[in-house]
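A quick aside before the break. I want you to see a complete sequence-to-structure record at least once, exactly as it would be stored in a machine-readable document. Don't worry about memorizing anything.
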Amino acid sequence: MKITNLNLNKNINIDDKVLREGVAIQAKIMEVNGSNIIIMLDNGELLEAKTLLDMENLKNQLVKFLIKNIEDGKVFLTPINKEDLNLIKGEGYSDNKAVDVFIDKVLNTYNLIKNEENILLIKTIIGNKMPLTKENLDNLIKNIEKLKNLINIQKDEKVFAINLDKTPFDESIMKFIKINNNTITENNAGTYPHLDNNLLINENIANIKQNNYQGQREVVDVTKDIFPKLETIFSQDTSTRSLINKVVILTQLGVELSLNNIEKLKNFIENGEGIIRPLLKLASFIKNSEQTDDRYTDEINDFSNKLDLKFVKVDEKNTISKESIKRFLYETKEILERLTPYIKSKKSLSEELSIRINNFLDNLDLQRKINSYYTFVHIPIEYEEEKDENNLFIIKKKNKLYTNSYSIYISLNTKNLNKVDVYCNINDEEIKADFIIEKEFRNLFKDEFDRLKGSLNKLGYKNVSINLREDFEKDLLNVFLENDLFNYNLNIRV
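That is the input. The structure line, written in tokens, reads:
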């Protein structure tokens, strides 16, 4: 029987499905030769394929695969069922070991130093399902190093921008260079005639040459502008993990790595701003301003009266009903649908209203980009007697292998227990919850864990793991990472 080597000029159809990336198929493994396998499809055709794992233990068995990629006539496959993955790994071959072996391979292939930062970067790339190419790695490493360099501005240093097309806050950070004050002098014209010589010995000159900034170039001192901005954005967390998370996620979303975009991501997710808080501020401003406007009409009155969106409340029994969340999301959708016609109906917008609208639209655009990779829902919640801001984040990772996998982050400002953060991972009948709380309250929480486990068991969760984490880094961006790194290891080719 002929063995098919798939190419771009031929399509194979199985049950009316064309073999392409992302399609799940079922096939019998006929032959195994290292990473090369021959499988028999449901229609009887034999197909040559590749996989990164040793499939010897699955020979002559029917296996469900996901087509991860088709390249140069080769089909790259990933087993889907956990039972098959367990057979592949074999006894004594841990998930962590598999990940470590793979990361070593990447580091060696791309000639990278084996250090904690590069290992963390590779894990973050995998966790965000980015293609692990040399181009991506080089680009991310340059951006991370640039960001670290800018954050650590010393008193005797200045930051210059080369050929700004936008404001310093909106421009790519790769257009910034940091130079020691003692090596430059400003002339009476406000320019820096010796700056070019300094650039030649500055480590960033390679980047400038790559981006064709040679010859005629405008150089601007932006130290006074960006220094306060950097202090605001990175006032609390400048850990390597946090910087890597921000750079990788913005790159994944196709967003320019600017200071404004880094701040937007921080406010949107880490500070719980989302699209709801800007929408509420916008709605409140419209309602208050329109009521004092002489041009107030029945149409505007009808719109303003419906701008009464409130946070989801926790009742006296410390529960949140599904109905209240549904109502909140419905009201949010209704306001969004009414907002566009309202803006179009205005002949002119005040400067303050324009700023609020643009702020909201920026957040809405970021929400749209995030939702192209994850289903991300942010719900502000409040207790009956407390006015502190609390947030519930639900993140459904778009994972074709584990469609019932969710990540949930709950951030609470409580009256008696101060700040409480909870990271939850839910997959089918399993739930893992990590509590991050202040030290003085840990024993109190431990005493309640058995009762919490019992309640979760009653809800159908058979495998419940609850932990107190003292070493947990409070970076919500970690929730976006894929938890099963071994499984995603199958998706990468080096």
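Two observations worth writing down. DSSP finds 15 helices and 18 strands in the chain. The longest strand covers residues 24-33. We'll return to this after the break.
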